[in-house]
Amino acid sequence: MTMAAALFLVLSCLMGVKSSYLLPHPDKITQLPGQPPVEFQHFSGYVTVDEKKEKALFYYFVEAEIDPLSKPLVLWLNGGPGCSSIGVGAFSENGPFRPNGQVLLRNEYSWNREANMLYLDTPIGVGFSYSTGASSYVTVNDEMTAKDNLVFLQRWFLKFPQYRNSSLFITGESYAGHYVPQLAKLVIELNKKRKMINLKGIALGNPLLEFTTDYNSRAEYFWSHGLISDSTYNLFTSVCNYSRYVREYYRDSLSVLCSRVMSLVNRESSRFVNKYDVTLDVCIPSVLSQSKIIAPQRNSERIDVCVEDETVSYLNRRDVQKALHARLVGVRRWDVCSNILDYDMLDLEIPTISIIGSLIKEGIPVLIYSGDQDSVIPLTGSRTLVHRLAKQLGLNTTVPYRVWFEGQQVGGWTQVYGNLLSFATIRGASHEAPFSQPERSFVLFKSFLDGRPLPQEF
């Protein structure tokens, strides 16, 4: 702990302050370019996780709008693997601002209304996170990422000691279905040696939890939403299912059969339909490309974009990078998803649903939620996995499957098992639920933090 941090703790105790800072913090953001006036503080910078290899992870931290020291701390991780939590989560989903031309607009449903939000660009090579050695970007895997994330958390608390005892919730979406449970497992193991991190729960949106179940649920989703024909559905479930196709794709052993089936699926479902929200028009922000890596396309085309990508433009501004205390190392420009990271894509096949089970056994509440318009990691696979896990753990249903409300409209459906394992859908939401349904996602988030059932009436 630095002398400044130690002095802060002493002064806080003596004076009984409720604000988060008495002394200037080196990572404090004075003001982002185009930022509207706000009363909360925000910070960004680097935490070195490996001095020898000079590996540094970049974070963006937004304090809660009101009385931050009394509010929980929420770590948010985006997926990919290889996509930026700052660019996607903070500036496109549940953060306080969204870029609009030269200015930032306030997000009315920012999650920092209820919590202190910590966004982390992980692993190394993602967003503004970097290593001075290119070898650190080669064959990065889940195990390395989890260890780096744990080191980050431990060292981040040295920067912000006043949050060390705060209730911590680890959250994320997509491939964070790997990142979040694996990090939570390491936190539990660390706490058994010495209680250091006050982990209170995890929440995962449209997560990859079990390769075969999650990926093969895509066929039924396509068929039931009219994206493919009966005959193609039969081929997609018997001749070559989606998990087989992805296995072959990442092993450079794509068979003629799978190639033909996927060509047929792609032709019928059409490149003019957004697979991450099957009801959304084709003109969408490219931040949704975070899902592209876990859903490979044979021609490697990126999502069709017909509008300027506001986030990419904003984060590539020199004045913005200076305000964020960010650096570009080894790359010429900031990208939503890393083009220098060589991730071990065979880690897709590592099941993390069993880790979820071990966390529940330790008494950690878990929420799995699904935007119901996502065909990449469909709700049907997630619901199947949650129900199967509840049965394996012997958890009885405590909240039967029912609708929940946001305002006077149905926000989605939910079911709770044993008061520790919850499943919920967000009606009308995409793979990135807080982007497409911000108000409903906020209601879900607040209920989870408060440990309350989702509203069952309006």
Structure description:
The protein is an alpha/beta fold and 458 residues long. It folds into 2 domains: 284 residues, Rossmann fold (3-Layer(aba) Sandwich), CATH 3.40.50.1820; 101 residues, no CATH class. 34% of the residues lie in helices and 18% in strands. The protein has 14 helices and 13 strands. Strands 1, 2, 3, 6, 7, 8, 9, 10, 11, 12 and 13 form an 11-stranded mixed beta sheet that branches. A two-stranded antiparallel sheet has the order 4-5. A hairpin with a 2-residue loop joins strand 4 and strand 5. The termini are far apart. Its main location: secreted.
Q: How many distinct domains?
A: 2
- Beta strand %: 15-25%
Count the beta strands.
13
CATH topology of the largest domain: Rossmann fold
Supply the helix-strand structural class.
alpha/beta
How widely separated are the two ends? 48 Å
How would you describe the shape? globular
Low-confidence stretches: 1-20, 284-292, 297-308
Biggest β-sheet description = 11 strands, mixed
The radius of gyration computed from the alpha-carbon positions, rounded to a whole number of angstroms, is 21 Å
How does CATH name the architecture of the largest domain?
3-Layer(aba) Sandwich
Helix content: 25-40%
Q: Give the helices and strands as they follow along the chain.
A: HEEEHEEEEHEHEHHHHHHHEHEEEHH
Please state the average pLDDT score.
Answer: 90
The CATH homologous superfamily of the largest domain: Alpha/Beta hydrolase fold, catalytic domain
Number of helical runs? 14
The top-level CATH class of the largest domain is Alpha Beta
